[in-house]
């Protein structure tokens, strides 16, 4: 019997940039530790947490495509492998504080992690394990935001919680406009028509088609991850 939380099963998306923190070495262990601690606090309440990690702190396919003959697909496969590095690091941090964690990759790397098997992922979650989905969707030309939307729909999670380095979605670029306003709520339509840079179009339309709300929030503020997971108001909420 589970307590009545707003969400029973969530999909947390952690971008590579967020994992980098202010460390020049791609990954900031202070960030992975704070993610682990906050996730631990909510799994103790019985909320099931799946995580999709990005890889932009190590390698972004679109940046490298075309360099010295590197085609986009190969560049994207390198990017997907970068997400696996982040996933293994985050898993190690989680397990160091006693959270049972499984990594599942979208393409086989069986010596390193389990392959993605939907029903098995769900089983892990039901047993209270955290599941980290790595290697994005397994396909070039996609993003880990799209992987987050896809996995969320597949495992019947109720919300995509997008942890970023900004407080949420603004009506205009806050770095260029001092009067930029943080928005509390937005419709999917707002995001697509105003071209607000929340997530790419493939990801946001996948969320819209499946009525998956998206919460965009700042993971650098202590307590925000656990608040977001528990359904407290943080950042900007899009859709339902
Ligand atoms: N990527 C991909 N297919 C996917 C997910 C990711 O090809 O389904 C590649 C792509 O090259 C991308 C890189 O992996 O640039 C890292 O992922 P992403 O940029 O989404 O990470 P984030 O911005 O969240 O750090």
What order do the helices and strands follow? EHHEHHEEHEHEEHHEHE
* CATH class wording: Alpha Beta
Number of helices: 9
Strand order of the largest sheet: 4-3-5-2-1-6-8-9-7
The geometry reads as globular
Tell me the radius of gyration.
Answer: 17 Å
CATH superfamily: Acetylglutamate kinase-like
Look at the structure and give the mean pLDDT: 95
Assign the CATH architecture.
3-Layer(aba) Sandwich
Please give the alpha-carbon distance between the first and last residues: 26 Å
Major β-sheet, in short?
Answer: 9 strands, mixed
Number of strands: 9
Broad structural category: alpha/beta
Q: What is the multimeric organization of the chains shown?
A: single chain
Uncertain parts: none
Ligand identities: uridine-5'-diphosphate
Percentage of residues in DSSP E strands: 15-25%
Helix content: 25-40%
Number of domains: 1
CATH topology: Carbamate kinase
């Amino acid at each position: 019997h589970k307590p009545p939380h707003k969400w029973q099963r969530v999909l947390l998306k952690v971008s590579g940039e967020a994992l980098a923190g202010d460390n020049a070495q791609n990954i900031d262990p202070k960030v992975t530790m704070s993610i682990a601690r906050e996730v631990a606090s909510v799994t103790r309440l019985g909320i099931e947490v799946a995580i999709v990690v990005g890889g932009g702190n190590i390698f972004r396919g679109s940046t490298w495509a075309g360099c010295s003959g590197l085609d986009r697909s190969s560049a994207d496969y390198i990017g997907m492998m970068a997400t696996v590095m982040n996933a293994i690091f985050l898993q190690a941090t989680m397990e160091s504080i006693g959270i049972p964690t499984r990594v599942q990759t979208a393409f086989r790397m069986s010596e390193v992690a389990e392959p993605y098997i939907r029903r098995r992922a769900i089983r892990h979650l039901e047993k209270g394990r955290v599941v980290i989905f790595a290697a994005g969707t397994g396909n070039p030309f996609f993003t880990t935001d799209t992987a987050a939307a896809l996995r969320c729909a597949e495992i019947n999670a109720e919300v995509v919680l997008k942890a970023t380095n900004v407080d949420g979605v603004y009506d205009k670029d806050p770095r260029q406009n001092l009067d930029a306003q943080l928005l509390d709520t937005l419709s999917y339509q707002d995001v697509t028509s105003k071209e607000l840079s929340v997530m790419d179009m493939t990801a946001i339309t996948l969320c819209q088609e499946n009525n998956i709300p998206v919460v965009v929030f700042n993971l650098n503020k202590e307590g925000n991850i656990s608040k977001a997971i528990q359904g407290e108001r943080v950042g900007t909420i899009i859709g339902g």
